[in-house]
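Structure tokens please, single chain.
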Amino acid sequence: MTIQSSIADTFAASGDDALLGAAGEVARLGSCSADYDRLSDAAALAGQRILAQAQHELDTRKAWMAKTLAQRSRWELGQDGLAQQQGFRSPEDLIQKLTGSTRVESRKLVGVGRMLAETEEADARQADAGDTLDLVAPLLPPAPWHAPISRAVNDGTLSIDAAHALRTGLGDIDTVVTGPVLATAVADLLAEAPSLNADQLLKRARQTRDSLDEAGIRVREQKAWDDRYLHIWILDTGQVRIDGLFPPEQGEFIKATFDSLTSPRRGGVRFVDTDRAAWATRVQNDPRTTTQITCDGFVDLLTAGTTVNPNEMLGGRRPAVQILTTHTPAGHGYIEGNNAPVSPETIERHICDSGTIDLTFDQLGRPLNVGHEQRLFNRAQRRALAARDGGCRWPGCDRPPAFTEAHHIEHWQRDNGRTDIDQGILLCRAHHLLLHNQHWQIFENTGHYWLRPPTTIDPGQKLIEMPSHTQPRLT
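Here you go.
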């Protein structure tokens, strides 16, 4: 029997036979990665379909189990519900813990599971009515409009992702879009489902809903705005995670911004303009990954935005990271409000841009006195540096002044440096990090600035000129 013909046998099976057949076909593919590598191209393609079918069989049963867990965790059961008995607030939280899946995935399973339950309850009512169905039919609640979706999941012809896409995209019954209207739409979409993936099916379902209820577009648009959020929290490692949901208008603006930042790395347009072509080449050759460029670009945009008009949005206070250090041989510090330690190099970099405040504590940890804040590059000095440097002075960098930090050439703490114009130079965040972390050095001589690499980069430490972006050069 060939792999291709065995797929047909697997699809023809039903019930437990279908799951057992799919598992058997997966086992025959091999027991290790090397076995998969030895498959022919045709067998590998057929094998992927076998894995998809096995996953489909498992997903169907996952939805059945999610339905069972959700029913045993109904809100009216209170603390007697299964989820709360196990210490969880909802069946979604329970399933996420048991499966290790994402919150989105657990919500999807419970959503489809509840849809299956509603259909099963309707079918059970009709079965109980039996021969008297014609007499009691008017008294029975109608089958839910999404019943065909549930039945397609149960008979194995529709995946969980596709079922969720249909249910989510079509929305709920209202005064305009009634149950029978949605039932007709479901029939049409189920006919298209075999030729569409879940993303395409979701898009088609949403388009169908919009065509059925154009007046409701404004309501759904408002709901998308009302549902927007941005959550920020700190992980155990001290890293900060961000999760957000944006309405289409804001979301597409964000996408367009980061598409602009990374398009040369993702097959963007072929540039004709010389300057844009040079920029695209720099992005393509950037040693950072595309996701790292996106991350750094996000921080750069926030940094630039906080300098535009802090009085309007931020109450006149420029956001800053505060680092707490102690005068100990270790030399490391901690970010205020975060348990992650920071290296001496990071401390020096923040001192360049934010200054220091000396605090003295007694044996009980009480502050005894607070010293004056060290002199920073003030607004006028930053303007002068921007006019002189024209942006980040690191060779080859094109970051504008708004995307830069003022670096003390003679370190304030280590070298007792001065906050004077000739002892300051603009560096973007990435190059400021690089300078401190890899111990590059900058020298000034009669208005000219030179960069000396560490011996790990260039054993000869040949000086590299750091020209200004301003023409003619200001010295």
